[in-house]
Specification:
- This protein is an alpha/beta fold.
- The chain has two domains: 208 residues, FAD/NAD(P)-binding domain (3-Layer(bba) Sandwich); 114 residues, FAD/NAD(P)-binding domain, CATH 3.50.50.
- It contains seven helices and 20 strands.
- The strands form six sheets. Strands 5-4-3-9-20 form a five-stranded parallel sheet, with helices on one face.
- α1 packs parallel to α2, α1 crosses α7 and α5 runs parallel beside α6.
- Bound molecules: flavin-adenine dinucleotide.
- The site of flavin-adenine dinucleotide has 38 residues, from α1 and α7.
Length: 331
Amino acid sequence: MAAVLVSAPDDNRAKPTMIVAILGAGPAGMSCANACLSFGLTPIVIEQSNQIGGIQLGNFHPNLWLLGEPEETGREMSERMARHFATLPLTCLRDSRVSRVSGAAGNFTLEVATPSGKQSIHADAIVIATGTYPRSTPELDALAAQSDRVIVGPLSESIRDDIRQARVLILGGGDNALDHSLFLAERGNQIRVCTRRRFSARQPFQDECNTNRLIELRENCSPDDLQLEDDHIVATWGAIKVRYNWLLAMFGYLPNTQMLTCFTPELRPALGQGGHILVDVWQRTSVTGIYAAGDVTDTPQPSVPTALAQGLVAARAAERDAEQQASSILI
Ligand SMILES: Cc1cc2nc3c(=O)[nH]c(=O)nc-3n(C[C@H](O)[C@H](O)[C@H](O)COP(=O)(O)OP(=O)(O)OC[C@H]3O[C@@H](n4cnc5c(N)ncnc54)[C@H](O)[C@@H]3O)c2cc1C
């Protein structure tokens, strides 16, 4: 066991506590770390960005799925959670990434690249809570790198603040594409939404868009070419060229599992068809001692409440599994 020695307030003898390395500090990772402390475990959180709070930091809409603060936006909610997280007695490495994970349950070693250099961390268990990232294409990534007017994925401050009275092309056919069309139509923008096949967004979104004179929904429609010209995006369909002020790509999300290539092969958890990490009801992956929580898993309803609950369960599972392993060794 990669233990640290601590003294509990009611116990003068030093006793080892179990170390849980948590990758990601969104709702799932923060909740897991908080629960680890409740269960007497020692969490070490590794976050790749310099911000704590996860993907909801960019959400300027109220969170309708979390009871308690109906007016609070996703960003305000994340900031509130991050403030609580900052008060917890734990180690959190920001701007940090694992570069190698090896060992086995009870004795993992994580090599971590941090702003102050490489660190080697020993952990008894690992919880992967790395969430998702917006799906894109190399062509769109290249355009987005050249122009701020090409945005990949929803939830950006530019979308909230800058896009007004403009011509906007949205690529994508799901809820995010149509939700953003309605939001932008309220700000006087003229929007064309193109999806390669049929719209998969919920019917109420489709009905509302269809009755909005500023929104045009086009199925089986994908531009043949996209180019930047001056301050515009020129989309081509056959012989027709149309100039837009903004291009938004909303193709859904993919799980953040790239870091698994740094895990030794026997430590790589099994993935589902969509690339999400497969877990059981205890958030256990296919690898003993490695758990996963939140959107990186094959969760049926990704949301903040779900991620919070899964983080909590993962912490409890890590504690419970270690206890069971210890008692089976004693027997
Ligand atoms: C457009 C949109 C709207 C949504 N609206 C709502 C809503 O209204 N209500 C609601 O409840 N839910 C909503 N959700 C879902 C909600 O945002 C997610 O379910 C929730 O954020 C999942 O939390 P998470 O901790 O699993 O992942 P995330 O919030 O994505 O956090 C993951 C964290 O891991 C970090 N990370 C990634 N890779 C690594 C790595 N290799 N190493 C270390 N750290 C890493 C990231 O930087 C991030 O901080 C929405 C999602 C989207 C996309």
